[in-house]
Amino acid sequence: MDNCVVKVFSFYQIPQISYASTSIDLSDKSRFEYFSRVVPPDSFQAQAMADIASYFGWNYVSTLADEGNYGEKGIEAFQEAARQAGVCISQSVWIPRVVTDAEYQRIVKDLLKTPKARVVVMFVNEDNCRNILASMKQMNQTNELTFLASDSWGAKIHPVHGHEENAEGVVTILPKRSMVKGLVMRVSSFVVDITDASLVLQMSSFDILFRYHKVMIVLPETDFDL
After folding, report:
1. Tens digit of pLDDT for each residue in 78-112?
2. 3-state DSSP call for residue 201?
3. Are residues 48 and 219 in contact, defined by beta-carbon separation less than 8 angstroms?
4. What separation in angstroms does the CA of 37 have from each of 23, 42, 70, 85?
5. Virtual torsion, Cα 37, 38, 39, 41, nearest 10 deg
6. Tens-place pLDDT, residues 189-217
7. Which phi and psi (to 5°) does residue 54 adopt?
8. Taking the CB of residue 206, how many other CB atoms lie within 10 A of it?
9. Distance of CA 9 to CAs 15, 16, 18, 24, Å?
10. Are residues 71 and 24 part of one domain?
11. Does 49 share its domain with 111?
12. Domain assignment present for 225
């Protein structure tokens, strides 16, 4: 839900409950008194990403984010968490609101300029994720970078479809969710399970699921102050 929409609803004292709005700004009850959500704010996943980077020894990383509230606030939260975790940021690269194919290639080149920072922390929408992978493929830079991506990529197939080689080894974040058994049974006949094997590694407060060369980080269920 867009922050501007929330402001209008709050002005007229109309309660809102969002299933997907993760903006950190929306936690400010002095501005958004009538807003609630059932997902954690981006500060939670930013902290998780810093912890994951530290755990795997990724102590020198680049960041990549969309221009706008989601990307800017998410990376700002990650930068703070990274400082506390001892993770250094070599450079911060931004994706403009309007992007050409040439601009995507320039972004990839910028990320490759620092040879010791091969891990890229991303707060990027799924279309831009896909276009970055496509540019890497066009530039023959497969497997040159490892991505640690936010829930906008999460478990979605769209960013990696047709670019699986470039996405190999990616780590993505998404809130832990519960299955609705009746719904799962209803749609299971339409879903093809492409997971050959899964290995679950318990790491403090995270479950790390290794699936078809991709790593998905599932955040634990938590009581949030909404």
Report:
1. 999 999 999 999 999 999 999 999 999 999 999 99
2. strand
3. yes
4. 10, 12, 16, 28
5. 30
6. 444 443 433 333 334 344 444 333 334 44
7. -65, -45
8. 18
9. 7, 8, 13, 18
10. no
11. yes
12. no
Residue 208 backbone zone (phi > 0: left; psi -120 to 50: alpha; other: beta): beta
Burial class of residue 1 in the structure, from the number of CB atoms within 10 Å of its CB (0-12 exposed, 13-18 middle, 19+ buried): middle
Instruction: State the residue range of the domain holding 169.
Output: 42-219
Q: Are residues 30 and 82 in the same domain?
A: no
103 and 59 assigned to the same domain: yes
- Kind of pairing between the strands at 206-211 and 198-203: antiparallel
Rounded to the nearest 10 degrees, how much is the dihedral formed by the CA atoms of 159, 163, 166, 172? Answer: 30
Encode pLDDT of 142-163 as tens digits.
888 999 999 999 888 899 888 8
In 67-127, beta strands by DSSP E: 88-95, 119-123
Residue 169 to residues 142, 159, 176, 211, Cα–Cα distance (Å): 11, 14, 20, 10
- pTM of the entire predicted model: 0.75
Strand pairing partners for 210? 199, 215
Over residues 2-58, the pLDDT tens digits come to 667 877 887 788 888 888 888 888 888 888 888 888 888 899 999 999 999 999 999
CATH of the domain at 135: 3.40.50.2300
Taking each continuous run of H as one helix and of E as one strand, the counts in the chain are: 7, 10
